[in-house]
Amino acid sequence: LNPFASVSGSDSEVRVASAGGGYPVLVESSGLRRLPELLLRYAPGHRYAVVSDDNVGPLYGRPAMDACRRAGLAADLFEFPAGERHKTRETWSALTDRMLEAGLGRDCTVVAVGGGVTGDLAGFVAATFMRGVPVVQVPTTLVAMVDASIGGKTGVDTRAGKNLVGAFHAPRLVLADPEALGTLPERERAQGLVEAMKHGAIYDALYLEELVRETVPLLAGEPGASRAAVLRSVQIKAHVVGEDELEGGFRQVLNFGHTYGHALETESSYEMGHGQAVAWGMILEARLGERMGITHAGTAERLERALAQVGFGSPRIPPGGRARIVDLLLADKKARAGVVRFVLLRRVGEVARGEGWSHAAPANLVREVVDQVPAPG
Ligand SMILES: NC(=O)c1ccc[n+]([C@@H]2O[C@H](COP(=O)([O-])OP(=O)(O)OC[C@H]3O[C@@H](n4cnc5c(N)ncnc54)[C@H](O)[C@@H]3O)[C@@H](O)[C@H]2O)c1
Ligand SMILES: [Zn+2]
Description:
alpha/beta, two-stranded antiparallel ribbon, 14 helices, 45% helix, binds zinc ion
């Protein structure tokens, strides 16, 4: 019953079902070396636009472009400044203008080489350039490998909020090379490890245990442990988005930990990393579920022990922050008449079916869970 047993050997291809016919996710050590051959096979284009941020460009974007050129493919690199604050329409217009100036047309393929910011932005460029050209996702962060590169969601942030302008645009291929994680800062690997633990929490309790056992090598970016975890997470995310590509229902289960998580993130003015906010969000949502009699007793404690391995400490909210968090949750556009909906676990490894996949939580319990979080100091 070892969850990693199925991911050993050469079994490194996961198929994602999609309206456009589906696409493969390849999890392959040294897979980047095969990029030109894989582009020709899965996304043959007249020209290739490799898009990277300016951290990843020198590390992987330029080598990818050079490898393509050596293989006789016409490829150009388009870099943009790294960071979430550049995931904007301004960067989208700069990239599309430069692609137009370079004479790229309908027959080009976009190759997104980078983290989730690059994948979302380059994916949105591909979704809109000439009304849509193919995109290949080459994720280089753990967050992008286990989460952002799969499922076809693309877009940019606006002043009104994150990811508010975008499109669904399924990739032709996702190529995850765990060796790329070696150059990633440890705190970035920690963000991705939380999303992987979320996959365990909602779908596979043994996988969560394995991640807890392997936390040290995973935080260090050790290729063997990383490959196994990326593959299992990809299988789980691919299964979920394959069932519900356009987020009508089942895909919501991926939001576990994200309702409280987003409120914590916003309250901290994004000082708190997304992974840390979601780690605490999962613990709070498990407590809420236990309080509502839906989640088995002891689940929150088990998640707390697992997530403590990642090293974020236990959640602490400054006294004034509690009211703001509750206000944020109740004011959310998805909250109706003081009722907030949450994805809740039945137990570790299983989501509780409610009305669809979420449950209405009464405002007093939503507040109570936040009030129980200790203040700092
Ligand atoms: N589309 C989706 O379904 C989905 C899902 C989850 C997250 N996201 C999005 O993903 C983004 C977060 O992604 P992220 O955490 O990958 O952030 P990111 O793309 O900003 O990458 C984090 C940092 O690591 C650097 N970097 C990337 N790969 C590297 C490598 N191999 N070596 C050294 N440095 C490297 C980047 O330059 C950046 O500074 C958010 O914008 C979020 O909205 C999208
Ligand atoms: Zn997330």
